[in-house]
Design goal:
The protein has 229 residues and is of the alpha+beta class. 23% of the residues lie in helices and 38% in strands. It folds into 2 domains: 3-51; 57-227, Jelly Rolls (Sandwich).
């Protein structure tokens, strides 16, 4: 007699029939309960999607700026720090983003010797509360064509300034992602670097320094909300 036949006979004996049927019944019950849970989750998701209202969130923005002018010698690197507590944030507003523009002494290619100096800038990561790992950031830049360098740091999570449409059960839930305090607080640290270039046809530079204007613009926002459906 084969092993399969022996096992089948053991399972169908009087003594084993009841436990075997009980095990089958329990397995079937578990399958029914699991399937019921899946159907319940799908029903809840469908009800949430169909019954949850939509809200339009509108951003009103204000800007404040800080500026400093630094004169760097050839091959010099200098750090400048802006204390963002010098920015007056109106009641009901939060800091959304920080833009930095580095302006060379000669702009738009307007260099008397047709040879622009090379300047570079970096926003240095520190304790400033911001989205340092955000893919939209531009924390470093370099130029040798007498053009401005634009740097960018997102302070508030997901802030773009563009209006949003969101689904939420109530106004409180819709506004909750935009009610976080504390972003954009601290010191903004920027490294500047200059490499004075020698004009073509000359063996020595016509100057030994470069004046850089650093403009910091802080964008602040408040929000309003309107139910759409």
């Amino acid at each position: 007699m084969s092993d399969d036949t022996t096992l089948r006979n053991l399972l169908m004996t009087k003594e084993s029939r009841i436990p075997t049927l009980g095990a089958y019944s329990l397995t079937l019950l578990l399958l029914v309960v699991t399937f019921g849970d899946i159907l319940g989750d799908l029903r809840d998701t469908t009800e949430f999607t169909s019954n949850t209202p939509e809200w339009q969130i509108t951003f009103e923005t204000q800007n404040q700026s800080l500026q400093i002018v630094e004169t760097l010698q050839d091959d010099e690197t200098r750090n400048v720090v802006f204390d963002l507590s010098d920015i007056t944030v109106p009641d009901g507003y939060m800091i959304g983003q920080i833009d930095v523009i580095l302006l060379p002494e000669e702009l738009d290619g307007d260099d008397d010797w047709n040879q622009c100096d090379s300047i570079a800038g970096d926003i240095i990561e520190n304790d400033l509360t911001a989205q340092w790992d955000d893919a939209a950031n531009t924390l470093s830049g370099q130029d040798s064509s007498c053009l401005p360098i634009d740097l960018y740091l997102r302070a508030y999570p997901d802030f773009t300034g563009e209006d949003l449409i969101v689904s939420a059960k109530n106004e409180y839930q819709a506004l909750e992602p935009w009610s976080q305090a504390g972003w954009g607080e601290g010191d903004l640290s920027v490294d500047l670097e200059v490499d004075v270039n020698t004009p073509l046809g000359l063996t020595t530079p016509t100057d030994t320094d470069e004046e850089i204007t650093v403009e910091v613009t802080v964008t602040m926002f408040s929000i309003s909300i309107e139910r759409l459906t």
